[in-house]
Design goal:
Pfam families: EF-hand_1, EF-hand_7. This protein is 54% helix and 9% strand. The protein is mainly alpha-helical and 186 residues long. A two-stranded antiparallel sheet has the order 1-2. The chain has a two-stranded antiparallel ribbon with strand order 3-6. The chain has a two-stranded antiparallel sheet with strand order 4-5. Strand 4 and strand 5 (130-133) form a beta hairpin. The chain is globular, with a radius of gyration of 18 Å.
Length: 186
């Protein structure tokens, strides 16, 4: 993914190249083939599905060209943010960089909690009988996992703030309200 601006005509050519079945729309599989992290690893499917949930406006399970334009711009903006916080330019965001990112986004999350998030977003691939972790730095996330983590934190914070209308940092909910929150986010 280039970080420089590309024209709509270039995006249309790229879209057509990605659309291997010439359907005029992209599937999660087609999109996953071209979205790569800085280490050339593909975006994980969870991130692809999250992006689809944000940009598949007609909810037909595919991304048309107009939806793709929005998705592409969104990814480019995240790429810009990612490179801003990847101070050592190693292609991943370590915990100290993640703490700074979250604070700049307005989320005061402890280092301990961020480590839990990082562990959740580490992707392990099975090859034969061996497991490989693409993101082999202990406390770091790749670009796609950074995007997924940030969107999850923002979504969770928005839900929390809806219940914390007084802004106290505490919420009280019954079991059914809790279950509603879970259902809305699955």
């Amino acid at each position: 993914m280039a970080t420089n601006k590309i024209s709509e005509q270039q995006l249309q050519a790229f879209f057509s190249h990605i659309d291997v079945d010439n359907s005029g729309t992209l599937t999660t599989t087609e999109l996953q083939r071209v979205l790569l992290n800085g280490d050339w690893s593909p975006f994980n499917l969870d991130t692809i599905e999250l992006l689809f949930s944000l940009f598949d406006h007609d909810r037909n399970g595919t991304i048309n060209f107009n939806e793709f334009i929005g998705l592409w711009r969104y990814i480019e903006e995240w790429k810009r943010l990612f490179t801003t916080f990847d101070k050592d330019n190693n292609g991943s965001i370590e915990i100290p960089e993640l703490v700074n990112a979250m604070k700049s986004f307005g989320f005061n999350i402890s280092e301990q909690m961020l480590k839990k998030f990082v562990r959740k977003y580490k992707i392990t691939y099975n090859v034969g009988n061996r497991k490989f972790m693409l993101n082999n730095l202990d406390d770091s996330v790749s670009f796609d996992n950074f995007v997924q983590l940030c969107i999850t934190v923002k979504t969770s914070a928005d839900i929390f703030r809806a219940f914390d209308q007084a802004g106290t940092g505490w919420v009280k909910m019954n079991y059914e309200q809790f279950m509603e929150v879970i259902l809305k986010n699955k």
